[in-house]
């Protein structure tokens, strides 16, 4: 008798085949210019990936914006605002203030706005429309497109693709079987491959090795903790991110005393019931604090943010050796 898992796998492989056809045909139409790629009148840097989430795009967008500011440039950031509850064009922040809630902005654009208070952040599924609206409202000289590798409607002067160094081989299958959003061959569109979550002694997947061994320009980054947390405290950890194991692994590497952990779906906004359950679990496991990512922190109700028991850990990008210089040199060529 055929089991449920076998039927599910058959259906997923069937859907994967049609997803593959859709992606290949779509990219072919772009490649032969049957679908027009629009070029904006200012340089555009795209930051994206070929898998679903967990590659560190948001910290990299923030890092690139900081590099541009140091180079005396005035960037804006455009995102689709994944999982937001609003529609159309939303100006998350202008040059001075955050104008929208996390619900209307999406958690990632809202977090970026919190970290970069002097840069306009705009969300719209139609990124070109967002860029046109931005040109009417703001003074800027370069655009950063967040989560843009699959968004081919706008020409990218610098197309950056982020890949998780710790991604497993079994995940490198097209959706919905695996986490791949596009086939391996799509990497030919990338100007620079940025490896995230690099570990010196980690045995990376054969898929990743195949990419590393190519002649493509690439650099390596890892994620570190910007703020410290006292190791004497017991902590209950929760997160709703694309790669929760990397976050939890980072906490273990810092020898933090995790008494319990809860993993939610990526981008999930926790209900009051679930938040109260977290407090109950804190008491059950005798934790001193409930700790989460900064991206999850911005989604908490204000009363929970002000509570002394909820804390977040701030992540930062660290470059291997002099790899940051390669990124800066690529950016300088645009300006």
Describe this structure in words.
- The protein is of the alpha/beta class and 335 residues long.
- The protein has two domains: 44-223 and 318-332, Rossmann fold; 227-313, Rossmann fold (3-Layer(aba) Sandwich), CATH 3.40.50.
- The chain is 34% helix and 21% strand.
- The chain has helices at 4-31, 57-70, 102-105, 107-115, 127-137, 206-212, 244-253, 272-284, 294-297, 302-306, 323-332; strands at residues 44-49, 75-79, 90-93, 121-123, 142-146, 158-164, 192-196, 218-225, 234-239, 257-263, 289-293, 310-313, 315-319.
- Strands 3-4-2-5-1-6-7-8-13 form a nine-stranded mixed β-sheet, sandwiched between helices. A four-stranded parallel β-sheet has the order 10-9-11-12, with helices on both faces.
- The radius of gyration is 21 Å and the shape is globular.
- The N and C termini lie far apart (64 Å).
Write the layout of secondary structure elements.
Layout: H1 4-31, E1 44-49, H2 57-70, E2 75-79, E3 90-93, H3 102-105, H4 107-115, E4 121-123, H5 127-137, E5 142-146, E6 158-164, E7 192-196, H6 206-212, E8 218-225, E9 234-239, H7 244-253, E10 257-263, H8 272-284, E11 289-293, H9 294-297, H10 302-306, E12 310-313, E13 315-319, H11 323-332
Parallel strand pairs: 1-5, 1-6, 2-4, 2-5, 6-7, 7-8, 9-10, 9-11, 11-12
Antiparallel strand pairs: 3-4, 8-13
Helix pairs in contact: 2-4
